[in-house]
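Hi W., the adenosine-5'-triphosphate complex you wanted:
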Amino acid sequence: MSRHPESSADGTDHIVVDDLQKVFDVRKKTGLVRREKHRVRAVDGISFTVPRGEMVGYIGPNGAGKSTTIKMLTGILTPSAGRVRVAGIEPARDRTRLTRRIGVVFGQRTTLWWDLPLIDSYRLMHRMYRVEDRRFRENLDRCVELLELGELLDTPVRQLSLGQRMRGDIAAALLHDPEVLYLDEPTIGLDVISKTKVRTFLRDLNAERGTTVLLTTHDLQDIEQLCERVMVIDHGRLMYDGALAGLHEIGESERTLVVDLAEELPPVDAPGARVLKVEGPRQWLAIPAAASAAPVVTAVASAYPLVDLSVREPDIEAVIAKMYEDRAAP
Ligand SMILES: Nc1ncnc2c1ncn2[C@@H]1O[C@H](COP(=O)(O)OP(=O)(O)OP(=O)(O)O)[C@@H](O)[C@H]1O
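Structure:
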C-alpha cells in the first residue's frame, strides 16, 4: 500500500467541521393517543478540524451525539446547519464520490455478507468500489497477513468469532485504500489478544499510510494506546479537544503513590500528599496529577523505612467522569 498524496482538502485539514448541528423532531407519547412533538439536539454546534494523518479519539457518554456526527461525516445524515468537509468533499451532497475515499467500521454490525465466505465479500467489494486489480490484490494480501485472515478466507462470515469477524470487517473497510477511516467501537467484545492485534494493525496503518482516523470507543485503552488527541462530547457539544494528557489536568485528577514500608506504621506525614488507605506496611498516598512525585518520595524516604514504591497514573475514565461532575455542579 502506498502513502496517500498530499492533502486535497482544506489546506492540510482532512476533516473540517464548522458549527455542525443536527436536530431530530420526535413525537413522544404523552397520553393514550396524545403525542407531543419535541426536538432533540443531537449535535449542537460542534467545530473541529483533523489534519491529514492524525488519529483522533471521539468519546463521550451514551447519547452524546457521536454516531450522529459520524453519520454526517459519511453523508448518511444531512446536517440541520453548519458545514462539513471530508477530503474536500461535502458528504451529504456527494456521498458516492466520498464513499471511495473513506472506510467505515461499525463494531456492532458487519458490512460483510453473512452467508458468504469472507473472500467472496471482498471480491464483491472489489467490483463495487471498482478498485484496480493490482491495488486490490496488494491491499488484500497485506490485510490478510497483518490481520491474520489467511485461514479464514473460505469460512462463511456467520461462522466467524466476533474477533475474527471484526478483523474481517477492518480489512473490508481498507481494500479500496481509503484516506479517512471512521472506527466506531472497533474492539467491542474482543478478548485481550484480539484487541492487541487490532490496535497494532491500526497503529501500523496510520504510521505507514498516513490514514486519517476518527475513533469512537468506550474502551479508553483504545484511546490511550492509539490517540494523542482526544475530543470529548456530551449533549451534542464539544467539551474538550486536546492532548490526552491534558484531560488529567482538567479533571484535577490525582496520581496514587503506593509505598511499602518495612513495618506497619501510622499514616505517613508527607507535605503535598494525602494518605488514602493503610493496609499493614503498605500505604496509598494521593498527589495532584500535575505535581511531581519526587518531593513526596524524598520526604517519605528520609523519614520512614521505605522498602518499595510505585506510582499509578489516574484512570482516564475517572477523569472524564469528574469532568462531567464538575460541569454539572452549580
Ligand atoms: N434518528 C433519530 N431520531 C431521533 N433521535 C435520534 C436519532 N438518532 C439519534 N437520536 C438522538 O440523538 C442523541 C444522540 O444520539 P447518538 O446516537 O448520536 O449518540 P452516541 O453518542 O453515538 O451514543 P452511544 O454511545 O450510545 O452510541 C440521542 O439523544 C439519541 O436519542
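The first strand starts at residue 13 and ends at 29.

W.
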